[in-house]
Write a structure and sequence with these properties.
CATH superfamily of the largest domain: ATP-grasp fold, B domain
Number of helices: 9
Number of domains: 3
Bound molecules: adenosine-5'-diphosphate, magnesium ion
Mean pLDDT: 92
CATH class of the largest domain: Alpha Beta
Largest sheet: 5 strands, antiparallel
Structural class: alpha+beta
Radius of gyration: 20 Å
Order of helices and strands: EHEEEEEHEHHEHEEHEEEEHEEHH
CATH architecture of the largest domain: 2-Layer Sandwich
Shape: globular
Strand order of the largest sheet: 14-13-12-15-16
Strand content: 25-35%
Distance between the termini: 26 Å
Low-confidence stretches: none
CATH topology of the largest domain: D-amino Acid Aminotransferase, Chain A, domain 1
Length: about 300
């Protein structure tokens, strides 16, 4: 097969590993910087161009779209879909999961366990908004943050009000969430491929920090999931429409709850913690599933 990896850099661990896995399995692989792609939006012959060349003959693409380029990156993925190229994660699924509020709304509709979450925009309703999620302590999150940036723990009502005021002043969209204290600064990353959790790790925040992101100094270790945690992770990925997803769970007093679903989950932490060849499993999934024109978004937008 000819596989394209949409990534801004060849040297990133995840990109390198997927290039390796593709090559080892006998595929032709190319890293394409989606930021430098330009598109020909035409009815009869849509195309993606790159450095003066038209990108042709791809059987599948693996989008690795960073949060800062979601808008343009998903447009490039969509363009490949219009050309009939199979994308391991569809553009709409990526957009869906990137928007934390939209993702939580979709998960709640399907009855997936979630932290109680509030969202508002007008300045008058701060008190009621805080009451809605049970009052302080609360976690306040920017809607499009990643790697723990823009996630704040407000331990008192006063602190929560100040943070909310500040976010409002910046005209940033945010959500307010019940703080799951019993998670103890840990969360569980479930790496889902298709209908299976292929690897899972527990991430523990460093001393004095509640965010377990590895980028925030958290540490990772192997963990055994309960059947309920497994099925919750698989369901969450399926509801988002993602074939490859990193589903983050918190262990709460009332069972596993989904915090977020990542459409470009990193491979470094999980491969090192679990010693599993996740990159190879992704390529295997593509071998089994890639078909021209299979992407559902084709013609739907
Ligand atoms: P990001 O997209 O920036 O990773 P998350 O929503 O995953 O944002 O939050 C970052 C980290 O903060 C999580 O991994 C978790 O450890 C902690 N966290 C987030 N929300 C809560 C919450 N409601 N209760 C307890 N811990 C939380
Ligand atoms: Mg996270």
């Amino acid at each position: 097969m000819k596989i394209g990896i949409l990534s801004t850099s060849k040297t990133l661990y995840s990109t390198r590993r997927m290039v390796e896995a593709s090559t080892n399995r006998g595929h032709e692989v190319r890293v394409i910087n989606h930021k430098r792609c330009y598109m020909n939006i035409a009815t009869h012959r849509p195309g993606v161009h790159y450095n003066g060349e038209e990108l042709e003959g791809f059987d599948a693409i693996i989008p690795r779209i960073g949060a800062s380029v979601t808008f343009y990156g998903t447009a490039v993925v969509r363009q490949f879909e219009m050309m009939g190229v199979y994308s391991v994660n569809e553009s709409v699924a990526i957009t869906r999961s990137r928007d934390k509020l939209r993702a939580l709304q979709l998960l709640s509709r399907k009855g997936v366990g979630l932290p109680v979450t509030g969202f508002a925009s007008s300045p008058g309703d701060t008190d009621d908004l805080l009451a809605l999620v049970g009052g302080a302590p609360v976690v306040i999150k920017l809607l499009e943050g990643t790697q723990g940036v823009g996630v704040v723990l407000a331990e008192t009502q006063k602190a929560a009000e100040s943070v909310i005021e500040a976010f409002r002043g910046l005209k940033a969209n945010f959500l307010v969430q019940e703080f799951i204290k019993e998670a103890g600064g840990a969360d569980i990353r479930c790496f889902v491929i298709g209908e299976r959790v292929v690897a899972a790790m527990k991430r523990q925040a460093r001393e004095g920090e509640f965010r377990s992101n590895l980028h925030r100094g958290g540490s990772a270790e192997l963990i055994k999931l309960t059947p309920e945690e497994r099925s919750t992770a698989v369901r969450a990925a399926r509801i988002m429409g993602l074939n490859v997803a990193g589903v983050d769970l918190l262990r709460s007093n009332h069972g596993p709850i989904v915090m977020e679903v990542n459409s470009s989950p990193g491979l470094e932490g999980i491969e090192i913690a679990t010693k599993k060849d996740v990159a190879e499993l992704i390529i295997e999934f593509i071998e089994k599933n890639a078909k021209r024109g299979k992407t559902q978004t084709r013609g739907q937008g």
